[in-house]
C-alpha cells in the first residue's frame, strides 16, 4: 500500500518537474555576414564572446526564426578559394526542423564547390554559444529512464 502511494507521488513529482522545467528555449542569434566590418561577433575566426551577444527566447518577437532547439551552422571555403586564403561563415539561431531529425549532434559535409559545412543542433538554453555542443539532454533522459525503471521495479 505505502509502496504504491510512494511510487505514485514520486511519478507525479517527476512529471511536475518535467512540465515546470519546460519553457521556451533561449538561443544565441547572430551571423558573421552581418557583423560590422573588422569585428567578429559571431565567432567565425575568434572565440565566441557570450558577453557581446544575448540569447533570445525562440518564441519571442526578437527571434528571427521561431524554434524548439538551437543550431550553429559553419561554412568554410577550401584553401585557395579566394586569394589563397579561407573564409568562414558562422550562423547561430533558433530552429524548428532539423535536417536529420535529431538534436544534440553535429553533421558535416562538403558541397560540390568544395565548401565545407557543419551543422550542430542542441536543445538546451544558450547551447549554440559553445565551440562544441554539450549533451545535457542525454543526462536528463538518462535520469528520467532510471526513474521510470525504479518506478516499475
UniProtKB/TrEMBL annotation:
Keywords: Glycoprotein, GPI-anchor, Lipoprotein, Membrane, Signal, Transmembrane, Transmembrane helix. It is a lipid-anchor; GPI-anchor. Residues 1-24 form the signal peptide. The chain crosses the membrane at residues 133-152. Pfam families: QVR. GO terms for cellular component: side of membrane. It comes from the Eukaryota. It is found in: Membrane. GO terms for biological process: regulation of synaptic transmission, cholinergic; sleep. The keyword Signal applies. PANTHER family: ATILLA, ISOFORM B-RELATED-RELATED, PROTEIN QUIVER. This is Uncharacterized protein LOC727126. The gene is 727126.
Amino acid at each position: 500500500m505505502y509502496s504504491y502511494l510512494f511510487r505514485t507521488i514520486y511519478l507525479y513529482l517527476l512529471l511536475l518537474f518535467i512540465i515546470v522545467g519546460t519553457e521556451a528555449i533561449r538561443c544565441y542569434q547572430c551571423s558573421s555576414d552581418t557583423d560590422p566590418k573588422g569585428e567578429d561577433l559571431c565567432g567565425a575566426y575568434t572565440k565566441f564572446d557570450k558577453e557581446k551577444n544575448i540569447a533570445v527566447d525562440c518564441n519571442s518577437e526578437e527571434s528571427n526564426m521561431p524554434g524548439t532547439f538551437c543550431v550553429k551552422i559553419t561554412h568554410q571555403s577550401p584553401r585557395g578559394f579566394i586569394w589563397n586564403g579561407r573564409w568562414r561563415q558562422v550562423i547561430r539561431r533558433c530552429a524548428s526542423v532539423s535536417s536529420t531529425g535529431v538534436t544534440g549532434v553535429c553533421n558535416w559535409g562538403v558541397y560540390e564547390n568544395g565548401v565545407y559545412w557543419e551543422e550542430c543542433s542542441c536543445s538546451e538554453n544558450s547551447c549554440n554559444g559553445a565551440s562544441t555542443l554539450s549533451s545535457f539532454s542525454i543526462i536528463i533522459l538518462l535520469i528520467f529512464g532510471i526513474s521510470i525503471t525504479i518506478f516499475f521495479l
